[in-house]
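Practice problem: predict the structure.
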Amino acid sequence: MAQRQAQLKFGGQGLALTVPNQSLQECSFMSNLITDRESTFLSYFIPSDDPKLLPSYRFMFQECSELKHCNHKMQAWRFPGEVEAFNDDGEEYSGQKLLNTLIKESVYGIVVCVRWYGGQLLGPVRFQHIVDTAKGAIQKYKKSFEEKKQKEAWMQATMAQQQQRQPRSLNPLDQKVRQITAKDRTVNLLRKTLGFPILQEVDYYAKSLSTLEMLLQSRNSMISSLRSQLQKSKETENVEDTSSTPKEQKATMSEKKVDNDNYTPKQPEGATVLLENSEIQEQVQKKPDAES
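Answer:
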């Protein structure tokens, strides 16, 4: 980071300061403006727990071009170890109120409230504006700090989940044992299908890597042999099913023939009714002839 040297007097002593070449807005938290009868108030807060940086921060406020035309730069700072003080800069009692704000908010750093005087005296309400803008700058810092903590916690949790998902590296013995165990499951499944007894459990961790390598090759050969036997068994079953099919077809055809021989067509109900009606009519016509 580019840096620049500056000479500034504090307490009658000349101090050579090394100040980062960045704007005040980049290293501080700024409040909203408060305007009352043409007087404007604005506060900055720079969080820090190192009192050695105080001269550098104060120099940044002094050199800031945006604040050169303000009438007051009221300051207060507080660091661990009861290192605290304030500067009214012509606005009596304002520095003490800024320091009290730092203490109440339980923060370390430097707070600066600037005022552009509008030509009218505001009275005691000006202290309320000073405190309100200082609180606003500190609250923005706290909000940013909490968001940063939440983001860091989320990133840590995400990294932990990713590490858990990543497979752990296995030593050669564990790798061989896992491979043979998987082969044994395949062998037992094929043997069960063929009706053979399954393999007995073996303590593979008690064997050497060379022995495990030989067992792994043996399992591969065993799987190939069992699969070929299973394939032959399926082919034999298919041949038997094909040879039994013509006999079943002949039996079915003979049954159909018997059913056809015993088949007697049924007369529709409507025809029977017509026949009965015609017989009744003939009987009715024959009755007069019999009487005559």
